[in-house]
Design goal:
Elements: H1 8-15, E1 20-22, E2 25-27, E3 34-39, E4 44-50, H2 54-70, H3 78-94, H4 96-107, H5 111-132, E5 140-141, E6 153-161, E7 164-168, H6 174-187, E8 191-195, H7 202-214, E9 221-223, H8 228-236, E10 241-247, H9 250-261, E11 266-270, E12 275-279, H10 285-297, E13 307-313, H11 314-329, H12 349-364, E14 368-371, E15 386-389, H13 396-399, E16 406-412, H14 415-423, E17 430-434, H15 438-443, E18 452-455, E19 474-475, E20 488-496
Parallel strand pairs: 7-8, 7-10, 8-9, 10-11, 12-13, 12-17, 13-16, 15-16, 17-18
Antiparallel strand pairs: 1-2, 3-4, 5-6, 6-20, 11-19, 14-15
Helix pairs in contact: 2-8, 3-5, 3-7, 4-5, 5-6, 10-11
Bound molecules: NADPH dihydro-nicotinamide-adenine-dinucleotide phosphate.
The site of NADPH dihydro-nicotinamide-adenine-dinucleotide phosphate (NDP) has 27 residues, from α8 and α9.
Amino acid sequence: MSMTSVLPDVRTFLERRHGLYIDGGWVASSGEARLPVFDPASGEKISSVADATEQDVQRAVQAAKASFLSGPWRGMPPVARERILLRLADLVERDAEILAQLETLEQGKSITLSRILEAGSSQAWIRYVAGLATKITGQSFDVSIPLPPGARYAAYTRKEPVGVVAGIVPWNFPLLIGVWKVLPALAAGCSVVAKPSETTPLTMLRLAELATEAGVPDGAFNVVTGSGGVAGEALVQHPDIAKVSFTGSTPVGKRIARNCASRLARVSLELGGKNPAIVLADADVDRVVGGLTLAGFLNQGQVCAACSRVYAEASIFDRVVAGLQQAVTGMSIGPGMDETAQINPVASQAHQKRIQSYLERAEKAGAEILSGPPAPEGRGFYVPPALVVKPDDTLPLVREEVFGPVMTVTRVANAEEALVRANDTPFGLAASVWTGSLQAAMELPPLLQVGTVWVNSHVMIDPNMPFGGMKESGVGRDFGTGWLDAFTETKSICVRY
Ligand code: NDP
């Protein structure tokens, strides 16, 4: 065991009486209610945040609207916005250890993962999107308008910021996904009201403070902490929210889409997945086992693109199961602050119970479950990693997104059967193909109904590679050079001369 000691700055942050972050500073909620924040490793309360009311949301949206209409952000030269956002990335780098520790303490994930994927990757994504601020372009057109006879026209388009954006963030990668929901909106010149999950609100509050320090003007980046049912609903239904950028579950995503549809507000949805891996007979077993162990159990499987269903051809199936079983049973389990623990608690007690109930139902139905090491004693929200071998396809654990350290492994006759079963789901986020054949590596990806396919890899993302879902896994794509399009409106301007 190698425990990271909690920094004094982290303790101070946890002990603060956090308010809401509105108009560049801390504001008390109009209500008295507080939301506790728990350490998933111990089940202990470590902090609390304001439980925002509808009036609080109103105040935050008003501040964002005033900043959008009359503040300096939107009209700044793009290079000035870029410079401020690059400075924000430098501040995240400066405070990386504070942010990483806060993330592990509120979310449960390994401190190593928090350092690499929350504090580390957040800097990379902020820098990438900062660069897009200076690359917003329209087009010019030759037009053939016939009236009045002899008139001449020139036409061009401008990309203009869409307005006030609501960024709604889940609890699995609170800082990194928080960056994905807030930063492209800022880079495009929008103002933002962010709502982190009530389970993991702390790093978003810290990010907002750092944004002010970097020079983001007051009101351009606001944070309301609160429940989805009150603060989230009030935000999505607010008439001054022009666009909602959401990552989270499919049921909540559908509800948000319905709420946005009533006033035709723009919406992008990055939702859940039930992501298959197809392992063909000629795959490299060691690479498959290493890659799928990471893809299935990283962050305790609380990853929207995690591999949760493996379909392996008959001749390789036993070797894949044996390798995965060895990997799962050999894992160490412990608190996220222990740098050597490979499996850590899941984010909340409610989620722990939800995963356990999927496993219990599968066990009752007679599924073969190969479990990893038992959870440590105590009140932490642990779920040991589990492989479910050859499960019945009708089990909820096979059909629904479990979002935990649970992977099913199914034997298939050939690639055709694997494809049919892989696509037999309402989800369409991601998939992988494992093979030594160039032919299969080229033929299979176009046949998978998902937004991302990895070949001989799974769950690897990059700011320059668009990411998002088909079917019920979402609408729109995050990342890539076109990322800011979803935060702008195209305006055509036609000049008669
Ligand atoms: P939710 O979809 O409920 O939460 C995501 C965010 O939406 C949170 O900030 C939540 O707030 C907020 N929210 C909830 N209800 C509303 C609403 N009516 N209007 C506006 N915002 C709302 O996910 P959960 O956290 O409950 O997780 C449940 C499941 O969702 C997981 O088990 C997993 O299957 C999936 N999930 C998928 C993710 C992905 O990356 N694709 C990420 C997280 C979850 P609050 O948390 O305060 O309720």
